[in-house]
Amino acid sequence: MERLTKRLANVTVMGSMVIVAGIIFLTAFDVIGRFFGHAIRGAYQISEISEVWVICLAWPFTEMVNGHVFMDIVYTRLPRPAQHIIEVFTNLLTLAVFCIIVWQGIVLVNRSYSLGEVIPIMEIPLYAFQVIIPLAAAVTCVILIIRLTRLIGFAHGAKGG
What pLDDT, on the 0 to 100 scale, is given for residue 161? Predict the structure, then answer.
């Protein structure tokens, strides 16, 4: 399971990179097209909506490599048991937040689908872009659960040994 989530996190971050490159090319071609009087219809909306994909697809990888902001100056001065408690607590809190994101993401997608919301100008269904929110958050939840089981297993093993 851990190997699968690592592979999935790597795929999602690569997808994020590809989308960033796509946004760059779309913007460049739109600017060039405007110069010649032929702007790309809906380029601004597509690049705007694609930014959500970039951020969401980066969540699992960022969580996997533990790439978040960290209060190192305080944390390293604490005894190891206190550090462990903080790690477990912050991972539980992060898991709770991402579970809420999954839940609210599903609500958002269902609402957009049932209302038939579309991207202005392009008439593309909005839910097609919003669906990444609960999916990426769910992958992040799996990574957090794996990390929590490892952290709790470490604490349990420390008591037994």
Answer: 42
Contact (CB, 8 A) for 33 and 110: no
72-75 contacts, C-beta under 8 A, 24 or more apart: none
pLDDT at 72 > cutoff 90: no
**Beta-carbon contacts of residue 75 (< 8 Å; ≥ 6 apart):** 83, 86
Distance CA 53, CA 99 (A): 18
Contact 18, 54 (CB under 8 A): no
Q: How far apart are the first and last CA of the chain?
A: 26
Query: What are the pLDDT digits (tens) for 116-157?
Result: 999 888 888 999 999 999 999 999 999 999 999 999 886 565
**Three-state secondary structure readout of the chain:** CHHHHHHHHHHHHHHHHHHHHHHHHHHHHHHHHHHCCCCCCCHHHHHHHHHHHHHHHHHHHHHHCCCCCCCHHHHCCCCHHHHHHHHHHHHHHHHHHHHHHHHHHHHHHHHHHHHCCECCCCCCECHHHHCHHHHHHHHHHHHHHHHHHHHHHHHHHHHHC
pLDDT at 5 over 70: yes
